[in-house]
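Changelog-linked ticket: 0RA example.
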Amino acid sequence: MEYTSETIEVLDDIQAVRKRPGMYVGNTGLRGFHHLLWEIVDNSVDEALAGFCTEIVVRIHEDGSASVEDNGRGIPVEEHPTFKRSALEIVMTKLHSGGKFSKKAYKVSGGLHGVGLSVVNALSEWLEVWVKRNGKIYHQRYERGRAVKQLEVVGESNETGTKIAFKPDPEIFEVTEFDYDLISERLRELAFLNRCLKIKLIDERKRRSETFYSEDGILGFLNYLNRGKDVISDVIYVCGERDGIFVEVAFQFTNEEFERLLAFANSIHTVEGTHVSGFRSGLTRAINEYGKRKIKKFKPISGVDVREGLTAVLSVKVPDPQFEGQTKAKLTNTEVRRIVDSLTYREFLRWLEENPNYAQRIVEKCILSMKAREMARRTKEIAKKRHLTLPGKLADCTVRGELFIVEGESAGGSAKQARDRRFQAVLPIRGKIINVEKSGILRALKNDEIKSIASAIGGGIGGDFDISKVRYKRIIIMTDADVDGAHIRTLLLTFFYRYMRPLIEHGRIYIALPPLYRVKKDGRIYYVYSERELRDLIERIGKAEVQRFKGLGEMNPNQLWETTMNPRSRKLVRVTIEDALMAEKMFRILMGEDVEARKEFIMSHARYVRNLDV
Ligand code: 0RA
C-alpha cells in the first residue's frame, strides 16, 4: 500500500478512536459494544426517514458478529473528487465524514449516535460492506479500520441497498456477545417510531427471529405500553409541524400510580429536555383551562397531579438536534419547548371539549391525585414529629426491638398482653382498612392507619425515607390466616414496597405465621402450621381432637405468645423483595378485578407465603 498524506491522516483517525474508544461510544462495556450496532442501524433508519428505505434486517451471527441490511439507495461508491477514493471508503475511514454526505441528503437524522461509520469500523476486528447500486454489487473488507482490499464488483443486481457486517474488536471491548433482548427492545421502539418501516431481527445463535412493523406508529406504541392496564380514557393523538420541527404525541390516562412518559428526539430515547417540558406544560395548561371553564369553584391542579397515571409517547423530529447531559439524554433546542407546548395545549383542550365524559373522568382523577398527595404530605409531616405523636394505639417497647402490626382490635389486645414489653411493641390496625372502590395504595389504606404505621416506624415515607431513623429492628406483620388477612398483608406489603422499600431490601419486614390448627391427644397439645403438617401428625399419633383457629382473636394471650410471638418457638417468614413485588402485582390486580377473581388471587397468595417456610 502506498502511503500518501491522506492515508496517514486516516490512520491517525483510526488510532485516535482506538486509543480513546470511550470518547466515541461511551464505554467499552455492554453499552459501547451495542453502540456500534445502533450506529449502523441508525444509518439505515436515516435512509428510511429520507424516504428511500422500507426494510431493515438485523442479524446476530454465531461468530460474535452482527450485520445490518437495508434496501435504501446504497452508500455512494463513486470516486470522491478531492480524496481520489470511493465515497464509501471515506465514509468508512474518515472521522465525521458521514455528516458531509448525510447533512444535505436528510432533513433530520439522529444526533446522538451520529459518530459515524468510521468509528464502528475502527473499533471492529473486521467489517465488510456490500453495496447494491448502479446494477452492481460492490464489496470491501476492512480490518481494525483499514481497508485490506480495494473496492470491487462481486456481482450484479437490479436492487439497491447496503449490508454491513462487523465484529466488535475483543481487544477493545470487555463484552463479546450481543444481547438479544436489548436489541429486540430497541428495534421494536424504532419500528414504532418510524411507521411502516419493517425491521427484522434474526438471531442465528438461538434460531430466533422477530419482525417489528407498525402502521399505527406511536399510537401502536402507546397501546403496547398500556396493554392490560386499567385505562380511563381513549388514546389522545396529536401531531403537527412548525418551522421544520415535527411533533407527534399519543397519550392516555390510566389508574396506575405513576407517570410513564417515553420521549424521543429523532428516534433517540431522551429522558428529559425541551420537548418533555413543553408537553408537560401544555398538558397542565389545557386541563386547568378546561376546569376553569367547566367546573364551579375549580382549584388549579399541579402538573404532578395531572400526570399521575399518564402514559405518553412523545416523538419530535428536529433538523439540528442539540443534546446535553452525561448520557446525552437531554434535548436542549429551545424552540422545541414552545412548539410542543402550544400544540399540546390547543389540541388537548379541543379534545377535552369534544369528549366531555372522558374529560370529566380525567379531571376527577387529577383531583383524587391531588388529595392523595396532600394526605401523603401530611402523613410525612406527622411522621417527622414522631416523638411527639406516636399513635395512641401503639404499645411501645423500651429497647429497639420488634414491632408487631396486628390485624384487629381483639388480637391486638391479646398481643399486648402476651408480648415481652421490653423489646416487643404492638400496633393494632383495624381489620377493615380497605377501600376497594378507590385505586391507589394511599387511597386504599385508610388515612389513619397509614399515619399510625408511618409514625410508629419513624423513618418517614417515600423519597425521604431514612432507614437509620427506623425505631425497630424487625417489623412483623401479623394477620389472620384467611382471605381478609391475606388481603391486608398484600396491602401492607405494597405500601412498604412503594413507600419504605429499603426496609424490605434490608430484610427487616417479616410475616408472622400463626398456627392453623390446635391438636389435642392424650392431654398433649400440638400446634400445626399447615395442612401437610396436620396430615403427618395424624399419621404419627393417630386419631386426635383437632381445632381450627379461625383468627388470631381466638387465641388467648398464652397461646398467642407460645405459637406466634415467642422468638424461641414462633415461625417467621422474612419478606424478600420478590415477595413484595409479587404482592404489589397482586395489589394491582386486586384493584381492577371482580370480587371472585379477587378472592381467588388472595388465596393463592396466602398459600404462596406459607409455602415459603412451612
Ligand atoms: C449518503 C448518501 C446517499 C445514501 C447514503 C448516504 C446511505 C448511507 C447508508 C448507511 C447505511 N445504509 C445507507 N444507505 C444510504 C444517497 C446518495 C444518492 O444515491 O444520491
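Closing comment: Example verified and attached. The pocket of 0RA is lined by residues 43-44, 47, 70, 72-73, 75-76, 101-102, 105, 162 (CB under 6 Å). The chain has three domains: 13-212, 218-372, 390-514+549-604.
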